[in-house]
Amino acid sequence: MAEAVEAPFNRPDAGFNALEGWTWIGCYGGYYLQSNLLEAFEHGFFTRQWHGRGPDVLAGYLSAGVSVHRPQQVHSAVVLPASQAASEPWPEADGLVADAGGQSLWVCGADCTPVLLADPRSGQVAACHAGWRGVAGGIVLEAIRQLEQRGCQRRELLIALGPAISGPEYQVEPSVPAAIAAQLQQLDGSLSLEAALAALETCAALKPDPDPSRQRLDLRLATRLLLDRAGVPADQISVCPLCTASEPLLFHSWRRDQVKAVQWSGIVSQQLPS
Fold first, then answer.
1. Which site from 113, 138, 148, 199 is most exposed, i.e. has the minimal number of CB atoms within 10 Å?
2. 50, 29 contact by CB (below 8 A)
3. pTM for this structure?
4. How far from each other are the two terminal CA atoms of the chain, in whole angstroms?
């Protein structure tokens, strides 16, 4: 391993594998996290233990013989077909949608939400790096639209939101939740900005900050609200409870450390329909 990390992996599985709906997978290279919702798909949310190993190496821990696809992330809402992100120079984007079987799709982050999407009927997948600009720009909804263009049904999609910074640790200016509320308004034209912000508060994505000029925002909960309003069934969305900023032994965090270091998340497409 790249780093000597003790807890929680120095205990038997029963001592740390207690996240409801999520499972730590141990292998000779270390541990990575899987969403039980996506158990039919080869995928993983990797930790800081894997620092220094990129998708070319990590893909082999998920599946043998798969191609590797990743974007040059720029905090956008751009989603590309995976075949356009197969080699350097990596294209600027923050999401990929599989367009062939046996593709491993990768995104990275240090506090932003890694989002993996899968269609159990067709085997198609997508991966998104969802920072606040991406969430406000509708990046996950754009990935869903592109999957729908390939024949998927959004009510059948399975979506896992991986470890990311939690609301209590994420202080933002009011313009940030306002931008996400505007995305809610695009989904429901009857909502006023005030009503959209109230919806973020109701789902606990938005909370007050001791500094009256700031607020606290949970991007994972905000993304789940957007998915709910877009028609994705609640029981087909899984949100990892782990906070990158609060788990220094497990995750890099830009907010906590102010160091450019990331962890990777990836998912493998199955044989796609011709």
1. 148
2. yes
3. 0.94
4. 40
Sheet holding 67-69, edge to edge: 22-27, 30-35, 43-46, 263-268, 103-109, 67-69
In the numeric block, which tokens belong to residue 89?
């120079």
Give the whole-angstrom CA distance, residue 168 versus residue 165.
8
Question: Which residue is it, tokens 């959209």?
Answer: 196
Phi, psi at 244, each rounded to 5°: -65, -35
Judge contact between 129 and 78, C-beta under 8 A: no
Contact in structure between 206 and 180 (CB atoms under 8 Å): no
Cα–Cα distance for residue pair 145/231, rounded to 1 Å: 12
For the chain, which residues make up each domain, given as ranges? 13-166+232-268
The 10s digit of each residue's pLDDT in 148-172 is: 999 999 999 999 999 999 999 999 9
CA distance 174 to 208: 10
The residue whose two tokens read 């499972």 is: 23
CA 93 to chain centre: 14
